[in-house]
Amino acid sequence: MKLSLFVLIGLFCVTTVYTQESIVVDSSGIDTRYREDQFYFAVTYNLLANKPSNVSQSGFSSGFHLGFIRDFPLNKSRNLGLGIGLGASINSYNHNIYLYETDSGEAAYINLRESDISYTKNKFNTYLLEIPFELRWRTSTASEYKFWRIYTGFKVGYVLANSTVFKGELGDKKQTNLDAFNDFQYGISLSAGYNTWNFHVYYSLNPILNVASNSGPGSMDMSAIKFGLIFYVL
After folding, report:
1. What's the CA gap between 171 and 119, in Å, rounded?
2. pLDDT at residue 34, rounded to an integer
3. Helices (H), the chain
4. For 133, phi and psi rounded to 5 degrees?
């Protein structure tokens, strides 16, 4: 099911990229109907928001994001537009909660700090297919490719796969595709900057996990905050 969804949306993205608006040039040869279609690549630091008081992060939790955004100008000067795209991201979260599945297939977790279990690594990873929607303001023109931009919007992600990694007193353990993760992740985003270098932040509006709050140390309604740099290439 997840592979079929990936293929279908991938075909949609390819169709969108190559269905271009007709080029209209003026007497100087400048395309007056240009678009800010862009490939993007982002590197973020990932934080867990809404953590219980006994949950903490350690090490560097990273995110890598890439994709393509199709631009739809909204006005004659083309400095305001809408964007819709397709991308993918890999995210890791280092923390002190050991997440696992019981023999019956139910999700459960242990607070490693409170249980005094020694470990050297404990994290979970998510692999998402993402669709960003953006309202885009920029100072670009048909002949100016270095400009200021502010893009704000909404991003929907589908978790294609997930995994947990633990190294410590309990041995080396890796689990994949646990039912403890919400299949859909969505939130608001903001990108702003000049030319290629831009600041990026994403705030999730729903929890990463769907683990019942009575299966461990407090509620696990943790959501993601990601901030870092995003690079755009025309």
Report:
1. 9
2. 79
3. 2-18, 112-115
4. -120, 130
Radius of gyration of the chain (CA): 21
Instruction: Single out the residue of 195, 77, 187 nearest to residue 142, CA to CA.
Output: 77
Q: How far is residue 46's CA from residue 93's CA, in Å, rounded to a whole number?
A: 7
Tokens matching residue 74: 């909204």
Q: Token pair of 212, please?
A: 């019942």
Summary count for the chain: helices (H), strands (E): 2, 11
Give the burial string for 90-101 (b: 16+ CB within 10 Å, else e). Answer: ebbbbbbbbbbe
Instruction: Please provide the DSSP assignment of 90-154 as one string.
Output: EEEEEBSEEEEE-TTS-EEEEEHHHHT--EEEEEEEEEEEEEEEEEEEE--BTTB---EEEEEEE
Measuring CA to CA, which residue among 175, 140, 176 is closest to residue 159? 176
pLDDT tens for each residue of 55-84? 889 888 999 999 999 999 999 888 999 999
